[in-house]
Structure formats: C-alpha cells, structure tokens
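Holo prediction. Input below; ligand is zinc ion.
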Amino acid sequence: MPSDREITELARLIERARQAVVFTGAGISTESGIPDFRSPGGIWTKMAPIDFSDFLASEEARRETWRRRFAAEDMWRSAQPNRGHRAVAELVNRGTAGAVITQNIDGLHQASGVPAEQVIELHGNSTYAHCLDCARRYEIVEVRAAFEKHEAPPVCDSCGGWVKTATISFGQAMPVEPMRRAEVETLAADLFIVAGSSLVVYPAAGFPELAKRNGAILVIVNREPTGLDPIADLVLNRSIGETLGAAVGVD
Ligand SMILES: [Zn+2]
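Structure of the complex:
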C-alpha cells in the first residue's frame, strides 16, 4: 500500500469526517474502460451529441439515438466496477458517506454495492429506458428486440409517448428531485470528495463550490487539474482507484 503523505492526509480527513459526500465523474469509470465522452479525443469530439429538442422533433434523431445506444451495449455490458468504485462503496457501507452524487450514467456505483437509494444520478441512468410522458419503465433488452425487427424508435405501450434511455441529454432539463437531494446531502457534509470530475459541467459542478462555502473540507482526486483546485483543501492529481483504495484500505 502506498504510504505517501497525500494519501495519509486523505485517510486522516476521511477518518475525522462526521458525514462525507462523494461526487464522481467520468474519471472514475474510465478506469473501468468506459470512455469519457467529453474529453479531448472522446466520443463527442468525433460524433456530435444529439440534442434533446432533436430527439423530440425527429424520427431519424430518435432512431440514431437508439442505434448508438445499442452499439455501445458491449462496452457497457463488459464494464465492471474498479478499485475506486469499491472504495466509494466501502465509505458508504461504513456510514462515512451518506450518498454518492454522480455525473455518470453507467450504474457502476450500484454494481459495486452502493444501495441504489444512496446513489444520486444527476445525468440519469443508461441501463434502462422510460417513457418521457408517463415515466413507465422499459428494459433495454426488450426495447432492443423490438427495434431490431423494424428499426422503429420505441413508443410507450401505455400512452404513446416517446421511450428514451433514462439519461439526461444535452438540452434536457436537469432532473428536479436528484438536484434537490444532491443539495441537501451537500449542505449536510463536512467532507466533500470529488473523484474523477473535471468540474466543468454546471450546474453539477456547483455542488463542490456549495460544500466549500458551507464550511466543508473539499478534496479533489482527478488526473488533471480542475477549475476548483485553488479553493480545495487537498488536491491529488492521480489515479482514483489507487488513491481512494489506499486511503480507504480497499483493494
Ligand atoms: Zn407512457
């Protein structure tokens, strides 16, 4: 186990925390082989994201959205939680962290053992779909079977609304309830740990700022520097799995 000063300091802050919150972004999941869509060379620099208004307006945009989702299926299916996810799950299961606020849509926190009700998903979840009008849930496997027969974008059996993965697209409003819960957890925290977010996407990146203004200790673990490094109490520009794993004592 690395025993350098940064990790010792992080371990000390975690030990002293009364209530922590962990805030995660793409960087924790790239260590599981999931590409960071927004990074230089990421998928969205090669293929423009489909805006929510286009999804609503165009049958072809809906069809393309679903084609991309199914093309990504193998990547999602083979991705497993890594040491960083396991360290976060340990913090939750010990009771040190009350919640995980995540920008990720891959479901890996739940897969690593964080109870679903303690994962606050700011950008939704890609592992299932729902009707945009009545919110009825659909499983991806059944949507895919129907899509592959006719290449027709799925429509809700109950109300005729559009069925979409339960993710937040560009141009789509942030989900009200997760945003509210994230704020409550942030204000209750005396230690706020950012893991793998470059903190460029607002309003999500406003949470660490809010925590800091509210008197919490702010720790940022991210491979690259972030815009909030100047206000953080501890910044570790290194691998998340190695850093959190060592600080929490999880392999
Ligand atoms: Zn419906």
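Residues 131, 133-134, 136, 156, 158-159, 161 surround zinc ion (CB under 6 Å). That is the main takeaway for now.
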